[in-house]
Design a protein that fits this description.
single chain; alpha/beta; Rossmann fold; 2 domains; ten-stranded mixed beta sheet; 10 strands; about 15% strand; globular; binds 2-acetamido-2-deoxy-beta-D-glucopyranose
Length: about 400
């Protein structure tokens, strides 16, 4: 048992070295194995250097470490400095133009604001709560909450491998910038929020923002919630691989059980959602010092409601179940388990939120965007049985209480 963590560290080191290319120690390190090592999910409560995470302050540092790993090996990096300037301009139709300047280059993207049709919390002077819908709204948004539609493909294109390096993000930072599409979208939402904070005349309260999206926009919503702390509520819907499913469990479902599940190896051939660095790891996910449960965990202690679908194997419902059980241990450690929910009901059309899930969406919006503190947001539900799933196959950590 003792040698496993060391082996793991060595494998990871050799992977890191091959990425860096120039370290002379590379010759002395063992070759990275060609087959995936389907080890368990990574322990949220142990730093990479093996020190335990014991307090809330430790968790802040662990979160910083996870953010760093996700950027380096999977998503690609955010720019390290804020842009030179961000300004907003609102038209009478609610089109909100956000101009971002970096050095002497600027880009302007447009988010569409649809204000509530009925009286809302905080409005009109205090600003109303809003959900930023990635691409298109696919959850029921209550009439007293604004909808801000964010056209993510302006920021980073998403039409296949030929989209690499295309979009406003890359116009500003260079077409060879190593950020993948998902983290570029997250950068775009952060700039939108910068502009909303400066322009209260939009009617939006930038302290009460949620984000939601489905499918690839669900993967985007998860990454945006993880990397933008000003988002109070994150609702990824049917995000599957690259969102709420874990790479290791999905690899197991496909390679060991023959379930047609989307894996890391497939997804990087389909689109440019991840940074180019991830290509080197998709055949050996086991060497990575994280999995998608830790992407979700970056959102803690803020609110996360994961909406999924048992009827589409491609989304990896069993992988989502295990992955989000693992993620929830972080909210449990922080003493706020009811701020993290999963609704995994039976099959329905992709992105058509079923009736069963609607009350959970409403409850999370009520509590986290409208401050209805007493609303019950305890939900961790699936209609599936997953007879072959066992926590002990993937989760081998005890949950501390900070
Ligand atoms: C917003 O940007 C669009 C596209 O660049 C432009 O056509 C429109 O005039 C701009 N609107 C405002 C209010 O600046
Ligand atoms: C954006 O750049 C153009 C020149 O390419 C310039 O005319 C325009 O004033 C700039 N806009 C802002 C808001 O800086
Ligand atoms: C909250 O709802 C869950 C079901 O989603 C239920 O099990 C629990 O008892 C409820 N808690 C309270 C305090 O009503």
């Amino acid at each position: 048992m003792v040698f496993i963590p060391r082996l793991f560290a060595l494998l990871f080191l050799s992977a890191a070295v091959s990425l860096a290319q120039q370290d002379p120690a590379a010759d002395r390190c063992p070759a990275v194995p060609a087959k995936p090592i389907l080890s368990k999910l990574t322990d949220p409560f142990t730093f990479f250097n093996k020190h335990p995470v014991r307090t809330k302050a430790d968790w802040e540092c662990r979160r910083a470490e996870i953010r760093e790993f996700l950027q380096r090996y999977q998503l690609g990096p955010l720019p390290t400095k804020p842009p030179t300037s961000v300004t907003g301009q609102l038209s009478e139709t609610g089109a909100f133009n956000v101009t971002v300047t970096e050095g002497d280059v600027n880009v302007t993207f447009t988010a569409q604001i649809q204000l509530p049709t009925v009286d809302a919390v905080g409005g009109p002077k205090g600003g109303v709560p809003a959900i930023i819908a990635i691409g298109v709204p696919t959850i029921p948004i209550p009439p007293d909450v604004a909808v801000i539609t964010f056209n993510m493909v302006e920021i980073a294109h998403s039409t296949g491998l030929q989209s690499r390096g295309k979009g406003f993000f890359y116009d500003l930072y260079g077409s060879d910038h190593p950020a993948g599409g998902l983290i570029a979208w997250s950068w775009g939402v952060s700039r939108l929020i910068d502009a909303l904070e400066k322009h209260p005349e939009t009617g939006i309260n930038a302290q009460r923002l949620g984000v939601a999206g489905c499918s690839r926009m669900g993967k985007g919503a998860m990454v945006i919630g993880a990397f933008e702390p000003r988002i109070k509520l994150t609702i990824p819907q049917e995000s599957g691989a690259g969102g709420s499913a874990c790479w290791r469990i999905s690899d197991h479902l496909l390679h060991t059980r023959g379930v047609t599940t989307q894996t890391a190896g497939q997804i990087v051939k389909e689109n440019v959602w991840f940074g180019p660095a991830f290509d080197s790891y998709t055949g050996q996910i086991g060497v990575l010092p994280f999995d998608q449960h830790l992407l979700a965990a970056l959102i803690a202690p803020r609110a996360l409601l994961v909406e999924e679908n048992t009827g589409i194997d491609w989304l990896g419902p069993e992988s989502v179940w295990g992955c989000q059980r693992a993620a929830r241990t972080v909210w449990r450690a922080l003493g706020v388990a009811d701020r993290m929910g999963l609704s995994l009901p039976s099959g329905h059309n992709h992105c058509a939120l079923p009736e069963t899930s609607k009350p959970y969406v409403e409850a999370f919006i009520d509590r986290f965007l409208k401050d209805k503190e007493k609303v019950n947001t305890t939900v961790f539900y699936t209609s599936a049985e997953f007879p072959e799933y066992e926590d002990k196959d993937w989760i081998d950590w005890d949950v501390p209480r900070f």
